[in-house]
Design goal:
This protein has about 270 residues and is an alpha+beta fold. Helix content is about 40%, strand content about 15%. Helix 3 runs parallel beside helix 5 and helix 5 packs across helix 6.
Length: about 270
Amino acid sequence: MGEGERYEEFAPPPTLRPFVRVLWTYAAPAPTGGVQRIAPDGCSELVIDLAAPYEEADEDGVFRPQPPVIFAGQMTRPMAIRPVGPVEIVAAKFEPDGARDFLGRPMIEATDRRLDLTARLGGFTAPCGDPAGQTAALADWLEGQRQTGDWRIDPGVREQVDAAERENEGLPLNPAERRALQRRFRDRVGVAPRTLRSVFRFRRIFDHATGPDADAASWLEAGLAAGYFDQPQMARDFRRFLGCTATEWARDQMELARRLASQSYKRDGTD
């Protein structure tokens, strides 16, 4: 990590654990300013910039400032961001199906979008330079939202999410049951079950990758360990989810992008 750069993860309090996977903080007092590719990870996030918000590339390729508070829905394609000043972030990564009642609208409406929640978090404060204090403040705010919002988990959707993450098939369903569950899944997760399985498989590559000096053989080994059949299949997902090859990503990515790839998608982010 660069000088002064830090990344830390914290387990949510017990009342939030059915909904929130991990709380995390990141700071980079002097970021490089380079473009960073953020890959899908199967989870949505509430991200609060306490310093200078990142710029994000829009569909027209122009970089524009993100709002200081965003809800990042499920992603099916990469997000390109770049810092424009000192970075300090506190964030909550939700379970794949954990943010529906927090958001208060179908999750499919947030897929591949960053929603501006600045007004909703008006008055929220967190101590600068204090990761534990920042995550405690966010956890307290989220707990208040949970208590007033009657958050719930759909057991059938959660079972399918768990099956997708563990590469299991889940319970057998007849066609009518399957269609009904797929509708609820898109409402509460934001993508189809098959897409979520693909994202989880892609993220497992980074559990086995050997770092920035990995060669093509090392990446192929990581892909096979993650469940890919061969190099072309893995390469297609790198293009789909990161817009580049594995070696290009390993060479170019730094700072927040690399930390998020290696850690915070995991169910137990505190390991």
